[in-house]
Design a protein that fits this description.
Layout: H1 2-22, H2 36-39, H3 80-89, H4 99-117, H5 141-145, H6 148-157, H7 171-193
């Protein structure tokens, strides 16, 4: 019994040594592969043709009536009357004192909005110095009257010279950047209401010595 077990172990050791000797020492050269399809599966490109799937290609159209998870369709169009309706029906899901959402809104504003609207929202972004019509100031009367829903509609569908930012800015970030715009408006209104600083008293130079 023991002799047979030793013989089996000897054969295993010799087989392992032989397999090890057959391995290539160069790590850049692949060794023998066992079940290579388990290592490198054959992927299917999204737009590749397919004989098995309906439609003749790998990428399948979503079933009718389905929507992306978390993105229910907005029941509005780019029409002005829909902008008014959005202003009544839509409410910002983020509170005005949500510091994290407001901070994110500041980042989004700096990346996408400040180039036209300016860092303080006065419509003096750098592109206005190169022939682009300046947008109205957020602190103007019309800007202060806009509800969050109307701002969201403008960001989503565009208005006049402003294009839609629905593809560049996510739905959540559109709401968050509105919080930052409100902060800019508050600062502009407070600055306009602050009393003007009195003029500095003229300074006189001492008379030269006689």
């Amino acid at each position: 019994m023991r002799t047979g077990l030793n013989l089996v172990l000897s054969v295993v050791v010799v087989a392992l040594l032989g397999a090890y000797a057959g391995l290539d020492a160069d790590p850049n050269v692949p060794n023998w592969e066992f079940l290579p399809n388990m290592v490198r599966s054959v992927p299917a490109d999204a737009f590749a043709p397919s004989e098995q799937l309906p439609g003749g290609q790998v990428l399948l159209a979503p079933p009718a009536g389905t929507i992306p998870r978390g993105l229910p369709p907005l029941p509005y169009t780019a029409a002005p009357e829909d902008a008014v309706r959005a202003g009544v029906e839509l409410v910002n899901p983020y509170a005005a004192d949500d510091s994290a959402a407001r901070a994110r809104g500041g980042v989004v504003y700096a990346n996408h909005c400040a180039v036209c609207h300016g860092p303080t929202g006065l419509g003096d972004g750098p592109v206005t110095l190169r022939g682009v019509p300046p947008p109205p100031s957020y602190a103007a009367e019309n800007g202060l009257k806009l509800t969050d829903g109307q701002m969201f509609h403008i960001l989503t569908y565009g208005q006049k010279n402003m294009a839609s930012y629905a593809t560049q800015v996510s739905r959540e970030d559109r709401w968050k950047v509105i919080l930052h715009v409100r902060l800019l408006q508050q600062r502009a209104v407070a600055q306009a209401a602050a009393p003007a600083a009195p003029p500095a008293a003229p300074t006189t130079s001492p008379a030269p010595p006689q």
